[in-house]
Amino acid sequence: MKRIALLFFAVVVCTSISYSQVERIVWIQTTLGDIKIKLYNETPRHRDNFIKLVDEKYYDSILFHRVIKNFMIQGGDPASKHAKPEVRLGEGGPDYTIPAEFNVNLIHKKGALSAARSGDEVNPLQASSGSQFYIVQGKTFTDEELDQTEKRIMNMRMNRYMKAYMTLPENNKLLAEISTSPRPKQDSLLRIIAAKVDSMHKNEPPFKFAPQQREIYKTIGGTPHLDSNYTVFGEVVEGLDVIDKIASVKTGAADRPVDDVRIISMRLIN
Q1: Residue 89 included in any domain
Q2: What are the residue ranges in the chain where pLDDT is below 50?
């Protein structure tokens, strides 16, 4: 009897381990066609939250409320379910956020599923919205453009470090001095702070696209400037043509489609 019990335990454990490694696929039925998305196991918090919302039918009847051609299509605002035409959307969602799960190997290639979020000014830790997401359409890039994007990402990273440094309590006096000083002195103080922050992070490797990532952005396309700034947690495995179709619709104020593009339903298919 003990042997059978141990065998049963082993089967349960093995099943649990293998299940956690299974790639979860979500089927999205929209008014312009169907999309299948694979969720990444490398971003478990985002994966599990998305699965939870899909199981709850949270996304059923929600609009793609923000669409920008050659950039992305965005949805996930529950207020869009019954929104009247021309109403601005994008502020809705559950009363929680998800900690960022940045992974240098998960990039904003065409078809990437990523989490929307509030801006750095109010969200310095870059936590993700509890429900809003976007799917990348993007465009292709040259090597020169990718070189510039790497520099842009490094500059954004340094700006975040600067803001974090300036919010430290011991810098309150310095912050007050900067705000009340004439412009030349402000610039001088900011240069000193920038040098100090740069020194604090001098051992951090610079941001660089891997060769295979460059090739993806040059051939398939995407939105590389969002890498390391927004969490990528899945990708389209079927339906890139539907992404193109949605991204091409006519839009009005705040990039909302003039004719609603609705998610009819979402469900897990494995």
Answers
A1: yes
A2: 1-19
Domain that holds residue 179: 145-200
The answer to whether position 248 is within a domain reads: yes
What's the pLDDT score for residue 20?
A: 55
Please report the pLDDT score of residue 270 as a whole number: 86
Q: Single out the residue of 269, 268, 208, 243 nearest to residue 50, CA to CA.
A: 268
pLDDT in tens, 124-175: 889 999 999 999 999 999 999 999 999 999 988 888 787 777 777 887 888 7
Residue 175's pLDDT is 77
Classify residue 213: in a domain, yes or no.
Answer: no
For the chain, the residue count is 270
Place of tokens 């999205």: 28
